[in-house]
Amino acid sequence: MKVSQIAAKAAVRVFFILLLIALVPFLLGDGIKLQHLYLTPKHAYMLAFPILLILGFITLLVLCSIKKYSKPDMNWLLVVNTVVLIAYAATLYISIYKLIK
Q1: Which stretch of DSSP H or E encloses residue 5?
Q2: pLDDT tens-digit map of 38-76
Q3: 1 with 72: CB under 8 angstroms?
Q4: How far is CA 54 from each of CA 48, 60, 61, 81, rounded to the nearest angstrom?
Q5: What letters, b where the CB count within 10 A reaches 16 and e where it falls short, cover 52-88?
Q6: CA–CA dist 95, 89 (Å, integer)
Q7: Cα(101)–Cα(53) distance, integer angstroms
Q8: 3-state secondary structure of 71
Q9: What's the half-sphere exposure (Cβ side, CA atoms, 13 Å) at 48?
Q10: What is the 3-class SS of 15-51, one letter each residue?
Q11: What does the pLDDT look like over 9-35, one tens digit per residue?
C-alpha cells in the first residue's frame, strides 16, 4: 500500500512540474505568434477523449486526496491516468512548439 501512495503522489507532482515547465516558454515567448495559433480538430468528437482524460484525472486526484491515498487501486488508476495525460500533454506541446517555430 505504501508503494502506491508514493507512486501516485510522485506522478501527480511530476505532472504539475512538467505543466509549469511547459508554460514558461509560452509566458516568456512571443505573444504575437501565440495570438494567431488555432488548433481545431477535424471532427468535434476528437475532443471527447482528452476531455475524458482530464476529467478522470481531476476526479481521481480529488478522490485520492479525500481518502488520503489509502486505496491502492485508486492510487494505481491515478498513476496510469497521469502517465497517459503526461504523454498526451507532451505530444500537444511538441505540436504547438513546431507550429510556433
Answers
A1: helix 2-28
A2: 878 889 888 999 999 999 999 999 999 999 999 999 999
A3: yes
A4: 10, 10, 10, 9
A5: ebeebbeebbeebeeeebebeebbebbbebbeebeee
A6: 10
A7: 28
A8: coil
A9: 4
A10: HHHHHHHHHHHHHHCCHHHHHCCCCCCCCHHHHHHHH
A11: 999 999 999 999 988 877 887 667 777
- Give the residue carrying C-alpha cell 501565440: 34
DSSP H/E element including 59:
helix 48-66
Number of other residues whose CB lies within 10 A of the CB of residue 91: 10
**Reported pTM:** 0.88
Distance between CA atoms of residues 66 and 51, nearest Å: 22
Cell of 18: 512538467
Rounded CA separation 18/74 (Å)? 22
